[in-house]
Amino acid sequence: MNIQEPFSIEQFYKLISQDKLMAGKCLKCGKLHLPPRPLCDNCYNTQFEWIPISNKGKLLTYTVIHIAPPQFHHLAPYTIGIIELDDNLKLPGVIQNISHEQLKIGMHLTVHFDSCNESQTWPPWPKYHLKPVDIIN
Ligand SMILES: [Zn+2]
Question: Which residue did the predictor score with more confidence, 8 or 108?
Fold first, then answer.
């Protein structure tokens, strides 16, 4: 994948909107950065490439949001979790398709891309959510 775009969180979300989950890989030391950043915190290199990463991982931690910011009022209460992807990368996201009583630390989740709403001005919020592996849809 040869994408000559800035290694920024904005570009990360643009790729998400194209159903691509990608991280910035340092061309010098090989460290993966998620979210991408313009400077490697391991070797201070500024040369990166975009590489596709796994959309599967395990739930590390989660919290239930009862008091939501205005744009998320209609979703509350909802659950925010952090998954550790297969590449040891961590990604936060809203967990859907499961009640928080059923959540277990370490359970397998996938990153699911939400279909893009053309009428929304980018970026209102991340175009993905986390959901359990075993539950269809
Ligand atoms: Zn590096």
Answer: 108
